[in-house]
Amino acid sequence: MKALVVDVDGTITLGDRSLDCRAVRALRSLSVPVVIATGNVLCSARTISKLVGTGGIVIAENGGVVECNKVEHNTAYMKECEDAFNFLNEHSGFDLEKLDPENRRTEICLRRNFDVEKAMQLLREHPGVEIVDTGFAVHIKSKMINKGTGLKRIAELMGLDAQDFVAIGDSHNDVEMLEVSGFGVAVGNAHHELKGIADMVTKGEHGAGVAEAIKYIKEKMMLR
């Protein structure tokens, strides 16, 4: 493996979204590139990368935005997301609150304060979009964009293949990223769906799981 990509919320952070320093120490011990992958907006992804001490290569908005020396926004499906949001706003009776609307370019993020299952049922009339509940926020996004497509693009920009990456995550929105990577890790607190497709499930949760995974793959000479 030539690089590592890691999710943020629930993976290198604790349940209260505070940064888990166990993950930071482990990530900083690597000599290969580390990519931050998140559902957060680009400015947040950049900040997280600086705090963690990685090289500034990021996947943001669940794959819709990537940055590796240059920024790319995949805005092709944003109108579908806006139409789905407007439909949901009109027909659900929910008090929907957008998060970071001024900075978000490729999807819509909502505060997690409504019945997500009901919203999913209502949006069956919009087959091009999906709702992803990360446990921290709810995303209305195109089915054509995910962290897997983001990883493929960032790998291309880095002169690598997605199979060259170890991927670490915890949630629904990490599934495609683990699937396209060469070695997928689900931390101990991960959703059962992610654990089901991972090559490795750690005993440790959050940052402890990240540190456990990095120790394992270094011992197996998979990463340096």
Q: What do these coordinates show?
A:
It is a single chain. The protein has 2 domains: 151 residues, 3-Layer(aba) Sandwich (Rossmann fold), CATH 3.40.50; 65 residues, Alpha-Beta Complex (Hypothetical Protein Ta0175, Chain: A, domain 2), CATH 3.90.1070.10. With 224 residues, the chain is α/β, with parallel strands linked by helices. Helices cover 34% and strands 20% of the residues. The longest helix is centred in the middle third of the chain and has 14 residues. It is globular and about 55 Å long. The chain contains 8 helices and 11 strands. The strands form 2 sheets. The chain has an 8-stranded mixed β-sheet, with helices on both faces. It has a 3-stranded antiparallel β-sheet with strand order 6-8-7.
Topology:
Blueprint lengths: L2 E5 L13 H8 L5 E4 L4 H11 L5 E3 L4 E4 L1 E4 L4 H14 L16 E3 L5 H7 L6 E5 L4 E5 L4 H11 L7 E5 L5 H6 L2 E4 L5 H6 L2 E2 L4 H14 L5
Parallel strand pairs: 1-2, 1-9, 2-3, 9-10, 10-11
Antiparallel strand pairs: 3-4, 4-5, 6-8, 7-8
Helix pairs in contact: 1-8
